[in-house]
Write a structure and sequence with these properties.
By secondary structure, this protein is an alpha/beta fold. It has 2 domains: 148 residues, Aspartate Aminotransferase, domain 1; 220 residues, Type I PLP-dependent aspartate aminotransferase-like (Major domain) (Aspartate Aminotransferase, domain 2), CATH 3.40.640.10. Helices cover 40% and strands 12% of the residues. The chain is built from 13 helices and 12 strands. It has a 7-stranded mixed sheet, with helices on both faces. Strands 9-12-11 form a 3-stranded antiparallel sheet. A two-stranded parallel ribbon has the order 1-10. Helix 3 runs parallel beside helix 10.
Length: 400
Amino acid sequence: MGFLSSRLSRIKPSPTIAMTGRAADLRAQGRSIIGLSAGEPDFDTPAHICEAAKAAIDAGHTRYTAVDGTPSLKRAICDKFARENGLEYAPSQITVGTGGKQILFNALMATLDEGDEVIIPAPYWVSYPDMVLLAGGSPVIVECDQHQGFRLTPEDLEGAITPRTKWLILNSPSNPSGAGYDHAAMQALTDVLLRHPRVWVLADDIYEHLVFDGFEFVTPAQVEPRLKDRVLTMNGVSKAYAMTGWRIGYGAAPEALIGAMAKLQSQSTSNPCSISQYAAEAALTGPQDYIGESRAAFQRRRDLVVAGLNACPGIDCPVPQGAFYVYPSIAGLIGKTSAARTMLADDEAFANALLDESGVAVVFGAAFGLSPHFRISYATGDAHLVEAIGRIRQFCESCN
């Protein structure tokens, strides 16, 4: 009998964190490394949010709070959903966790039994399948390739639903592809879901405000109100307000699910950081100018990266609608050999060779369930991006 739980064998370490760690190790050895693997804005948290946190400390708000969020933060979240998404929720239908990841984890742990199925469109955020597996469920991966814009079609959704389906996880705009579902595309999916009343929807809206070229964000419960009683809408402050380290995510759902998630959280982390909750409240209720400014910067970076990658031999980079990632194809490089004589048999070999030979850290597509691709996060400075694209182009030109 082993000491470690057998459930750990179901999952693997996060590939994005692993690549970031490997890049850090090489940097520590004195190598010139440009990291494009982490999904974290490089901007500072807006000043008024930081000031609210300092004021909370000065006021002595350093004790335990309610398990799943302070009443004032929950009211601010309700106001956010009403103002931005046309969704009406009561505070009893809101949960606050230590980042968006905990909201997702709590929901799956609170609802999945052995063998329950969760539909996950690929490419997907790396943690979705492992969370499902850890909760005892079965991920049902539906490939959504570049030719369909990396988006799930209603036909593929219909074909993936079985009597064991409990959830569909829908991330728009998407990590890693940046693909978004407009109103018509979302409506086509919700029409399918109306025919399957046992299937719930986990809407990961964390990149809601990072959309480009006039793309209009929508969320499933907003598009189809008849689905609201079986939708968990998850969001957070990490990406929109550059608050990744503050660790605040939130969700809205029917009271029964919110209560089950709070029960689980009460026996795990308990409340999120009290100071971070006051900062998140300031983010949601204070000036919103930062969002437009950061969106403009990210769109400029997106255009720079897409143009640069499409000038690289063997790379085909589509234009994403949102988030701060691109997910280019390297089908034209598979089977070639790098300058250091590394065979590029797949996208993982490509990513490792690129890091070893050119000092650019990216994440290989297999980590996200769809190959042959790789993901770049352009949430870093323009100068770093220009240098990185130059190195990638030189690497590709040297392959034969």
